[in-house]
Specification:
This protein has one helix spanning 2-37. By secondary structure, the chain is an all-alpha fold. The longest helix has 36 residues, at 2-37. The N and C termini lie far apart (55 Å).
């Protein structure tokens, strides 16, 4: 039981890190695009 909770917690942490990284790269991409079109 405990291991399953730990596993899901680890997945949540990974998902959080991944979404933050995605958001950052998306911001970076949009700023690059704006720079290119300007």
């Amino acid at each position: 039981m405990k291991q399953g909770i730990f596993q899901s917690e680890k997945i949540m942490m990974t998902a959080k890190c991944f979404s933050q990284r995605n958001r950052r790269s998306a911001l970076h991409d949009s700023s690059l695009h704006a720079h290119r079109t300007a």
